Amino acid sequence: MQRNTSGTLMCIQPNTPEYWMYKFRDTALDTVDSNNRTSMQTFFVSWISIVSSIPSVTSIILSTFYGHKVRTRSRLLVTLFVVFLCFIVFTGFIEINTDSWQLGFFILTMLVIILINTMVSLFHASSMALIAKFPPQYVQWYLYGEGSSELVSAILQIMSLAISPSTETSALIYFVVGTIILGTTLLLIFVSKYSPLMQYHVHSDREDMDTKRPVHTIAEIAATLRQIWPCILLTCVMYLTGVATHPNITTLVVSENAGSGSEWSDKYFVPVITFLGTSVTSLIGRFIAGSLIMKRSNQNIWILVVIVRGLLYIPLEMLCNALPRHHLPVIFRHDWQYAVISGTQSFSGGAIYNSLFLSMQ
Length: 361
Prior knowledge:
The protein is built from 14 helices and no strands. It is an all-alpha fold. Helix 11 packs parallel to helix 13, helix 11 runs antiparallel to helix 14 and helix 13 (299-318) packs antiparallel against helix 14 (335-359). The longest helix is centred in the N-terminal third of the chain and has 30 residues, at 102-131. Mean pLDDT is 82; it is low at 1-12.
């Protein structure tokens, strides 16, 4: 059951760039122009990263200290239900004209996304606490599920665009299906307690005892950190270097033939290259990295690889055809160049992430 539901929250993250570009367009022109994006269009994804970071980190810290006070299954159900409600809100606003209060809608969107990401962080922490009760190979399948969820999201995004030429209708399809996926996952988690596999590995009596345990002390957490600090440090570096480019910059990259009227360049380029391509290569990297484990003997090599990777891909992505731009030149203008850069970045990222998580076991 956990294999099938892992990563579902990643699947329904609001990755519909065309819809958000339309919502925050210049209403005086009533068009979406890559060369003349409004500040809300340009910095929408960046603001998501900024406003979500502190709540997400805070929720993880609170979960570390106090998470065991609440049953894991209850945490999963509550967090998923809150995200389910948030997606109902997003779905409802698709048909509402927000042109007259764009700034207010932008702020409201940020607040809802903060809530979503906080719940996602708690959900992931709770999922890892649950999966830790299972044999070690389940952690690997959990990571595969997390990676494949991004693939499902990208496919859903492309299908919604193909079904309807209207930006609002395609967004409606995307969010409705995403809400259905959330509801289905919520139901699966609820009935999972009847699964023999779940009953075998997760004992209610043991969970009741866990909720009565005292809060973890700083000394206990410090002792654990001393054992896995290289993995945590490199994971943080991977996150910081990754979020600096994807999706903050990559969602702004356009095709070399943008504006030509071609469906590929104007409609499918970002969903296919930026989301589908990166999710496929990341998933391949996760599968290949199953046997790569960081040890004390190769720790320095891992640190070097992660640092060099970050220093390499940040400037490469910035020199792609991201619009609007005011300072840096476009060096990698062709579509295939951007595809290679983003693909190799996500491939290496998926492989390293998977290896680091498996190394913490």
